[in-house]
Amino acid sequence: MLTFLNRIFISPFYAKNAGTFLVILLLAFGFLSATEHKALITAALGSPFFLAIVFVLWTLYLLKTIAFIWQELTAPEHLFLQTFWLIPTSKRWALWLAIQTGLLLPIIAYAGWMIQLGIHFQRWDSLSAIVLVILILLIMGATAADYRLRHPNPDSLRLPHLTVQLPYELFFPAYWLRHEPLSFVLTKSFSGLLLAGVCRLYPTDDYDQRLLLIGLLLAVLGHSQVGGQISEFEKKYLLFLENLPLSWLQRFARYAFTYGLIWFPELLILLRNCPSEIRFDYVIWLWLTGWGCILLMHSLSYGRTIIPERWLSGVLATFIGGLLAIMFGVPVGAWLVLGWLGAIGFWYRSVLT
């Protein structure tokens, strides 16, 4: 039974969020050494405020796992799971705890590292708080999952709302913001904070434009899962889309508008935090380059069955190759041309095949 539930909840969760996990790993372990990580953990163990921030981040991750379980329990292809509540309560709770442990494994592993250092520095108060919070998160996750299982269609208060007819290009952004807000917030927060942080590094030392290109590369890779989310959204809600009498260029233009809207906050962040050493037109070219690269990732994944492990390996290889190319001085104009021509070329090829 546990193996069956793992295939429904745990494996799809990590596959769906592979891009986000990759970016977090690159940010956490690609730029910070083990010594710097230990210093951060030591600071958290000695500061209740810093430790509380860590707990808030863990809680946000828990909410993401709960939202995913609730979504899967109400999915049409998983309605048979409603019979799961017939299993004895003790066994059902043990299974939910096991599932939640698998979903919370990244923070449990990091908590284990914190506990190890807490024992070394004899921070028994912080250590006890970490263990207590992990137990609370597991119980809260299992409780929320079991509640949705027993209440698949809960009664809710519906307030009057204004009905607005959205154009097709806004379907996914509206769906993403309304039904997957945590994914939206994490993706855009990571991208925006990264670009703002890179811009604010310029007054502290002598940097050239390659630093902005490296930040742009990471921000673009932070959106690597968006193409899969759009494809999943269309397969679930827009099955008629492929039969519409639209040319390949019209379809590409609509996707370009959608991704331009998704990528637009980064333009505002770049303009707001533009270093005085960087020309205004360079920032515009930089944003257009990111727009084209995100479209390129969409064109590469559209209409294909992507194995998450291969996609993850491709994203990692892109980061390494792109970083080397940037360090060797490939200008933003070359990235702009490669991104847009690659997006158009691969899109044309995918539509024809």
TrEMBL record:
<feature type="transmembrane region" description="Helical">
    <location>
        <begin position="93"/>
        <end position="115"/>
    </location>
</feature>
<feature type="transmembrane region" description="Helical">
    <location>
        <begin position="252"/>
        <end position="271"/>
    </location>
</feature>
<feature type="transmembrane region" description="Helical">
    <location>
        <begin position="44"/>
        <end position="63"/>
    </location>
</feature>
<keyword id="KW-0472">Membrane</keyword>
<keyword id="KW-0812">Transmembrane</keyword>
<keyword id="KW-1133">Transmembrane helix</keyword>
<protein>
    <recommendedName>
        <fullName>ABC transporter permease</fullName>
    </recommendedName>
</protein>
<feature type="transmembrane region" description="Helical">
    <location>
        <begin position="182"/>
        <end position="199"/>
    </location>
</feature>
<feature type="transmembrane region" description="Helical">
    <location>
        <begin position="211"/>
        <end position="232"/>
    </location>
</feature>
<feature type="transmembrane region" description="Helical">
    <location>
        <begin position="315"/>
        <end position="348"/>
    </location>
</feature>
<feature type="transmembrane region" description="Helical">
    <location>
        <begin position="127"/>
        <end position="147"/>
    </location>
</feature>
<feature type="transmembrane region" description="Helical">
    <location>
        <begin position="283"/>
        <end position="303"/>
    </location>
</feature>
